[in-house]
Amino acid sequence: MSTSYPHRDTSRSQTVRLRAFLPEAVFVGVEDIEVRRCKNRAELCQPGDVFIPQNTPASDEHDKVEEAIRRGAVAVVAERLLPVSVPQCLVENTHEAFGQVCQALVGNPSHHMLTIGIIGTYGKTTTALFVAAMLKRLSGSVAYYTSLGASDSTSCDRTATRPPAARKLANWLDSANQAGSAAAIVELTPAMLHHRAAAGIGFDLIIVTGMRPGQFRGSPSAGEFAKLLDLATENLKSHGMVLFNADDSHASAWAENSGVTTVSYGLDAAEHIRGKRLARYGAENQILAIAGNMIMPLTLKMPGDHVARAALAAVATSWLMELSVPEAIAGIESLEGIPGRMQRLSQAVEVPLYIDSGETPDRVAVALHSLKQHQLGPATVVMDISASLKSACRQRLGEVLDKGAQRVVLSAADLSPEAAQRVAMDVLGGFRAPGRVEVIPDRAAAIRWAVENTEHGCILLSGCGVSGWIDRSGDELTDERVAKLAVSKRNVLPPLPKLSIFPPPSSNQHFAH
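Given the sequence above, the corresponding structure tokens read:
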């Protein structure tokens, strides 16, 4: 269960007036509304609460206003005039109003610390953790909220992997502020942007990792994502700016027409902070970071250009904020690995094994390209197939695997055998040589098979990352746990036969019975 990040001082009580930060709202039956607590679901309301109903794909909470009042709601913030007797505040978007109220009730903590938002369709977690490592080296106290967990700089919750809603985000920021954190870094997913979860947060910097359209069902198009990004930039502080990956054509096109102050970073097309590839050996990646008139080498212990771009985003952040770039690079280099992001399994020595969360054609292509760049030999890929992948992208996934892998094992950790068979047939449609593909729905068995049958090259476990699944015996497993056991079993040396130069001694006939 995820941490809710309660306030450290539970005795304090914050009260806010809506007109102070909702100047364009229309008030009905009252000049202003004082808020001490707010709820966005009718069944959660208690006496004295202000009810802020929101539209969801499943229902419209506006229709439950009578229940909220019956439970004790004393006022309503709504998108339309409702037939109720309590005071009302009419706004254009209740999702945004709810986020603003949640932030105001905890004292707007983003106003008191450096706050960085990471936005993109890929690369958010890697970028966020590089930036966090850099700032931690410089300030010693950094809070972050990523898909791998959250920290308020004093305590860490590795179960907080789902995108936080507005109230949870506000409580986390409040906890980080009270803990004395110098900075807070938060990933902003498309769903969070759509539901205005970060409304009320003032950002010093927004980093755009990339805007290539997603390949999952329900993913926003590039145009839809651009509109969400436009809304997010409205949360920039007066001095705030946007840092974007210039190697992503969609991000570059957006930056050119955004109307906000932007700075670019990248390996190929950046104008401001650039990286030049120097060497790739084993799992290490060495680039030359160029920021202004400063040139410094940067060695990363993870393969891939996408990792190098994430590290350059951290270098660019330090340069923009006039921090010590050499110290920043030392902090970036201290991050030796990221769970589930091209994570090297240390036990696998003869045949390197990597664990990556990539489950779409573009992400798998990036991972395979990284392994090829580092000359790790032919790849055996254990690919977990998902029903959430767009049907049109399944054949494309097969084409990517056919081109980049020597051998492929398709598994389906969370699908029934029938569903796994259907998705596997779609993926197999992209192979020119389906004979190189093994279909083993049991992912644990698929990983063991790959480890036992790969004598050279490298192994890539793709599609799950750090996410767990339940095997047939009811145990919760992860790629790392299964791979470690399989590699350890393979690494056990066979027992050596007992050799004797001299023949075994025979019994003396004089003492024989």
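The two ends are 76 Å apart (CA to CA). Try to locate this feature in the token string yourself.
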